Amino acid sequence: MMNIALFGPPGAGKGTQAKELSKYYNIPHISTGDILRYNVREGTELGLEAKVYMDKGELVPDDVLIGLIRNRLTESDCDIGYLLDGYPRTIPQADALTDILDRINKPLDAVINIEVNDEELVKRLSGRRSCACGESYHIMFNPPEKEGICNACGAKLYQRDDDREDVIRQRLAVYNEKTKPLIEYYEDADVLVNVNGADDVDAVFKAICNTMDQFK
Ligand code: AP5
Ligand code: MG
To answer: What is the pTM of this model?
Structure first.
């Protein structure tokens, strides 16, 4: 059983890495951002509420996220472990997570902090193109075979509403204020592992595997 959280600022590569890691280790990838965007697309009550915050680059309220992650982690596919992406993002979310994980007896093995500097983050996010199927590309660093079209499913790629430069800056500010304190939180809990996220995708993948292999 592997119980892992991928941590890092917006654009660090959490989604890119989680997708591959989830296949490689065969554990469920739980991205709160993906779950919220799915709900926005489907027009659910949760989606309608979340969209207001997401479009501004703000965090969706803690009580909403805590309920969502509690439900998700108690689904049966998590019996073999989990790979969190984008949760927790605040101290109350982390406290709630500890509580949930204690109850289901699946404490975190590691919180992997993917480190990338701000200028690179802005470049990555402003050039990202996403697909509803979950794939994502970058116009320069990872372009699709056919411009604007998803390699995996053939659908038209889109730019996320929150990948505009002004919203990107806001997301980075929110990260620094509310999420970054979790680095110390997990350092104190002795589970934090730092990984250099500025390398290419394959090198970052290998660095993360070095840590995850210890928990196989
Ligand atoms: P979320 O979807 O989690 O967005 P985020 O944290 O802002 O992170 P991103 O998905 O933008 O970045 P990523 O690290 O996944 O990078 P990626 O791999 O795509 O959250 C969105 C919103 O939902 C939040 O703002 C909030 O409103 C809400 N939300 C979600 N969770 C919440 C929570 N827990 N609490 C409250 N609210 C919550 O890579 C980025 C780009 O870089 C891509 O184009 C990729 O191709 C490229 N790239 C990746 N790796 C490399 C590399 N090594 N070299 C070059 N390019 C690379
Ligand atoms: Mg992501």
So the answer is: 0.97
